[in-house]
Each structure stands twice: as structure tokens, then as C-alpha cells.
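Example 5.3 — ethanolamine kinase
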Amino acid sequence: MWTPNFHSVKINFVHLSSLTDMSKPKLSADIARQLRKFHEVEIPGSRELQLWNDMTKFLEKASGLKFDDIEKQRRYETISFEEVRDAVSELKDLTAILNAPVVFAHNDLLSGNLMRNEDEGRNMSIHVNCEIWYQNYCTAILVLKFED
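Solution (predicted C-alpha cells):
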């Protein structure tokens, strides 16, 4: 007889503060050390990079949108999806030159997505929301951070 696998999650309240001042050198170094630990985590399953597949799917859907609002449709039609596809292709070629490792990476590394223990007297631990982690280039998180 087949039964589904149920996974449980234990949720606790943790006192954290957001990382609003990323310009402090010690804080930036602590974040980098913590993220490196995440990047070293071995996740079961495929190590295949999802970035380019996701970009292709997004562009396919985005290029076919239609809006009822005439003004929105007019602005939308000014987007050259061919230029965007060319830029993505060029970026894909450039990242191949880097030969960057594919790691378990956070893909929206904004300061609001990082939290730390309020207790400054001990080693700081960084807490990161986990819903947008997947296999990605290690260097891509830096690019995404600087883009924001």
C-alpha cells in the first residue's frame, strides 16, 4: 500500500534584526563568510544550472503578453525582446568564460532578505529566507546584488 511522505517543519520565533547597513566592512565580511557556508552545502539531485532555462521561459511568456489597457500595451510594445534575448545570450557566453562553480545559491540577495541574531556578543549567524535558493553560479549572486 502506498502512502504519501509527509514532512513536518518546526517553527520557532527567533529574535532577529534586518541588515540595513551593508556598508560596514565587518558586517559585509561576516555575511560573505556565512554565505560561503551555504555555497558549500551539497544538495541532493541535479547540479544543472537553472538560470538560463528560467530566463528562456520568462522571455517566452513575457514576449506574448497582451494588455487590455491601451497605454500599457503601447509601452509594452516598445520592448525589443530580440535585444533582450541577445543580451541574455551574450551574458550566458560571458559567464561560461568565468568557469564559475554551480552552487546552492540565494537568488535575491537584498539586505531585506538577510537577518542576524540581535545578540552581538556572540558569533553572528545570518538567517536567509530560503524560498528562492537553487543551483546557480556562485558569482551570479554578486552580480544580482550589484544590479539592485
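Remark. Residues 16 and 118 are 5 Å apart (CA to CA).
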